[in-house]
Amino acid sequence: MDVFPPLPLESWRDTKETLHRFLQIVGKIRLEGSPRRNHWWNVPFHLTGRGITTRPMGPIHGGDAFCIDFDFVAHRLVVRTLSGREASFPLAERSVADFYRDTLTALVALDIDAAPQHPYPYDLPDARRAFAEDREHRSYDQAAVSRYWQILSQVNLLLEQYAAGFSGKTSPVHHFWHTFDIAVTRFSEREITPPAEADPVTREAYSREVISAGFWFGDDTVPAPAFYSYTAPEPPGLPDRPLHPEAARWSEARGSHIALLMYDDARAATDPWSTTLRFLDSAYRAGSELTHWDRRRECPGGITDPQLRGDPA
């Protein structure tokens, strides 16, 4: 299998839009069933050997602790409890309304009292339509979903390697269900006062200065898969800093700038893996130098001990 196999957005747009809403339904259950952590780290999905998982959560209202997994090998949603009980159903041939109903039915069958507090899509065009009423989105191309999971898994490993080079506060590598991207974020610990008009989600996510790196599968704004990095808040002069490789560029987005390396450009490189890591490092360097981050937090190869690194005495 290619390190980064192809997956043009238009080849699976309908399936992606359906799957995105499936993930939001389960993600909102995760939001209800887990203790809140800084910067919403409790909410995203994590990769498994067969798909993605909420990780264990609960118990809620005295019920059993439980976990919800998307199994993208068998193409099933699986709910398991700490006591060993299980309920599952196929992901294919279901509208969003069907998926919402079947997910809640599986929870009830396992005596789990959990449901999304706001059962509507988040930041999507149909945000005013309840999940239970969405019979429009019902595409599920198993081959495309398998490819999505394979790419997600490869990018997860690449971001883990990138994350190893920084010993300061760093988020887990996690898959966000609201934006359908996978990311890892480095923090400087410098406190930031968000704009008064910022929504609660944004205020918590960006209460500290950050440099974030990740990958998305394409959307209406950038209609193709891409690796990205951004610094928030953005320092003056950021889009003037060099990026590597030459195919990488700065792109304006919502009044600020984001570094982009299109997925197909990375795939076309002689060494896609090293090329992408070089891109992420160049974007990090651009932001960290302008904001004067502590270079002592950098630890190439994940090694922090000076003797093991071979630093001169």
Automatic annotation (TrEMBL):
Top-level division of the source organism's lineage: Bacteria
Annotated Pfam families: DUF5996
Entry-linked InterPro entries: DUF5996
Name under which the protein is recorded: Ava_C0101 and related proteins
